[in-house]
Structures are given as C-alpha cells and as structure tokens.
Amino acid sequence: MDVINALGRRKTAVARVYLKNGNGNIEINKKDYKEYFPTAILQYVVVQPLQLTDNIGKYDIKVNLDGGGITGQAEALRLGISRALCEINPEFRPILKAKGLLRRDPRMVERKKPGQPKARKKFQFSKR
Questions:
Q1: Could you give the number of structural domains in the chain?
Q2: Which CATH number covers residue 94?
Q3: N vs C: which end of the chain shows fewer Cβ within 10 Å?
Q4: pLDDT tens digits along 11-42
C-alpha cells in the first residue's frame, strides 16, 4: 500500500492527511499529536476514527494542519483520517457514518453586519 491522502475541513481549519502502513505514529506539522494537542479531549477526537475501526497502531499518519483554532483543527483532522480509512477499506464506511464522522460540519462564523457591534448584537437602544 502506498500513501493515501485525504482532506478534512472544519470552520476555517484545513487538514491534509497522509496515511501509510506503519506502527501508529501521528505527526502533525512535524510534532507528535500529543504535543500538538495537549488536552485529552482533543487527543481522543483525533484517534476516534482509529479506535472505532480497530486500527490503532497499524498506520503512520502525517498531517499538515492550517487555519482555525485548536478545536476546529482537531475536528478537521478527524474528518481527514475518517475519509482516508474509508479509501483503504470501504467496510469502515458504515461504522464511521453511524457515528457522524464522515459529515463535514457546515457551521461557520456569521459575518459582522454594518451598524452593529457584532453579527447579531445591536447597540443599546435609548428612548430619550
């Protein structure tokens, strides 16, 4: 098996995932994923597709992450890994789809409107 690449996005974060046979190393922007995502919740989000498909320790994953915040980056990475696993073995698709890991979250930040301090917040109304 050669290198399989996939793309994951969330908000403004983009994860380019390169997956190949190996011994379970996950490298994000030339750092270990536990160093890049220090909290246990984000580390769990990253390895979630591998846990569901029983593939922990089978593949080496290299990732280029760009844009967004750390939560958006972790979720973009989760989508990228899920897509790459489906490319390797189509039998993983129903497992990942049932947990909602193959859906690109469409929610984005709403734009700020003119004449308002934020997207929906209005300036304080003064009667007099």
A1: 1
A2: 3.30.230.10
A3: C
A4: 999 999 999 999 999 999 999 999 999 999 99
| Environment class of 58 (CB within 10 Å of its CB; exposed 0-12, middle 13-18, buried 19+) | middle
Dist. CA 41–CA 12, nearest whole Å: 20
**The model's pTM:** 0.91
CA dist list (Å): 18 to 63, 96, 98, 112, 113:
6, 19, 24, 36, 39
Q: Is residue 128 assigned to a domain?
A: no
What is the distance between the alpha carbons of residues 84 and 94, in angstroms, rounded to a whole number?
Answer: 14
Is 59 within the bounds of a domain?
Answer: yes
> Going by DSSP bridges, is the β-strand pair 26-28/31-32 parallel, antiparallel, or unpaired?
antiparallel
Return the HEC string of 14-61. Answer: EEEEEEEECCCCEEECCEEHHHHCCCHHHHHHHHHHHHHCCCCCCEEE
CA–CA separation, 4 and 18 (whole Å): 6
- Name the residue range of residue 68's domain: 4-98
